[in-house]
Design goal:
- There is one protein chain.
- The chain has 342 residues and is mostly helical.
- It has two domains: 1-83, N-terminal domain of phosphatidylinositol transfer protein sec14p (Helicase, Ruva Protein, domain 3, Orthogonal Bundle), CATH 1.10.8.20; 87-287, CRAL-TRIO lipid binding domain (Phosphatidylinositol Transfer Protein Sec14p), CATH 3.40.525.
- The protein has helices spanning 29-44, 53-62, 67-83, 88-94, 117-120, 126-152, 170-190, 207-214, 220-225, 234-240, 278-287, and strands at residues 159-164, 195-201, 226-228.
- The chain has a three-stranded parallel beta sheet with strand order 1-2-3.
- Helix 7 links the parallel strand 1 (159-164) and strand 2 (195-201).
- Helix 1 crosses helix 2, helix 1 packs across helix 3 (67-83) and helix 2 (53-62) crosses helix 3 (67-83).
- The longest helix has 27 residues, at 126-152.
- The radius of gyration is 20 Å and the shape is globular.
- This is Cytosolic factor, phosphatidylinositol/phosphatidylcholine transfer protein.
């Protein structure tokens, strides 16, 4: 893979741990040429940001290295980023999810069967829930994955998702699946190539039959990442996630102080591995500019309450990457945290 100092200022490893065609460090001359062609076409169209090599490769892989299709996907994504929530770059710097439950704790929903959207909408709105989701995707990309890459010495670009369907009955299925469908569109269209593996556990009777029909319309590469399991999921899950990093309720041994659902453990909490995200540095640069009155701007710093994505179900929210990394070289969520998929 050819890096270009004009666009690539990475301070973390840039080679994928497994030799997959089209992935960083394992590209062909034709794929490298596609990166240059895509970047040139975007520059000619007036784009100047997010043109680094890793981003170009993610969009190209998502469109099977069809440069024209990758360009359209990138253009659509940039349009959405400028419009959504007043601009995603600004949203991630300023958004605070302050909605609380009655006992004062943040509202965290990680299991689809426990979602009561009607109750959720009494304390928040769907718009804010989705805005929170987007902020979590941004923080997954930076600083969480870069910090994990630094710790383990190779590039980590994706997450493993565990989606628990226990308790998803007919009464809840319609509203839950409708919400998941909406946020899935965001992850698929605007955060390509972030899904490593998706484990659907406690799948109810009949779900496998429905999925067998749905998967006919999915990309074969995506289908290979999805594993539909019933209640006997522990063996396969533990083959993916070390026992000490899997919450006890899912067959692991992790019992975080204060509860795994509130844990935010990971390399991004360790000064040895983490660095301020680029979106925060942009905020500092803006606030360092003199104001119209001549006084210095004051940075508000990082958004408060950055622990989990409140009010969004597991398998939808890009969550934490375990401090131990992933056995197969891919990041996976920390104990009990929701994860990203696209």
């Amino acid at each position: 893979m050819q890096l270009d100092p004009k666009y690539d200022d990475y301070d973390f490893p840039t080679t994928s741990p497994t030799p997959q065609s089209g992935h960083p460090g394992h590209t062909t001359p034709e794929q490298d040429a596609a990166v240059h062609q895509l970047r040139m076409m975007l520059e000619q169209a007036g784009y100047t940001e997010n043109l680094d090599t890793l981003t170009m490769l993610r969009f190209l892989r998502a469109r099977k290295f069809n440069v024209e299709l990758a360009k359209q996907m990138f253009v659509d994504c940039e349009k959405w980023r400028k419009e959504f929530g007043g601009g995603v770059d600004n949203l991630v710097r300023t958004f605070e999810y302050t909605e609380k439950a009655k006992d004062g704790r943040p509202v965290y929903i990680e299991q689809l069967g426990k979602i009561d959207l009607n109750m959720m909408y009494k304390i928040t709105t769907q718009e804010r829930m989705i805005q929170n989701l987007v902020c979590e995707y941004e923080k997954l990309a930076d600083p969480r994955l870069p910090a994990t890459s630094r710790k383990f010495g190779h590039l980590l670009e994706t997450c493993c998702t565990i989606m628990d369907l226990k308790g998803v009955g007919i009464s809840k299925a319609s509203s839950v699946y409708s919400f998941v469908q909406q946020v899935s569109a965001i992850s698929q269209n605007y955060y390509p190539e972030r899904l490593g593996k998706l484990y659907i556990i406690n799948a109810p009777w009949g779900f496998s039959g429905v999925f067998s029909v749905v998967k006919r319309f999915l990309d074969p590469v995506t289908v290979q990442k999805i594993h539909v399991l019933g209640s006997g999921y522990e063996k396969e899950l533990l083959a993916q996630v070390p026992k000490e990093n899997l919450p006890k309720q899912f067959g692991g041994s992790c019992q975080c102080p204060g509860g795994c659902q509130l844990s935010d453990e990971g390399p991004w909490q360790d000064p040895q591995w983490t660095k301020p995200p680029k979106w925060a540095r942009k905020d500092d640069a803006i606030n360092d500019q003199p104001t119209l009155s001549g006084s210095e701007g004051v940075s508000e710093g990082l958004p408060a309450g950055d622990v989990t994505a409140g009010g969004v179900p597991a398998g939808v929210v890009p969550g934490r990457v375990s401090a131990e990394g992933r056995r197969s070289g891919e990041a996976y969520p920390g104990a009990g945290q929701p994860a990203a998929y696209s």
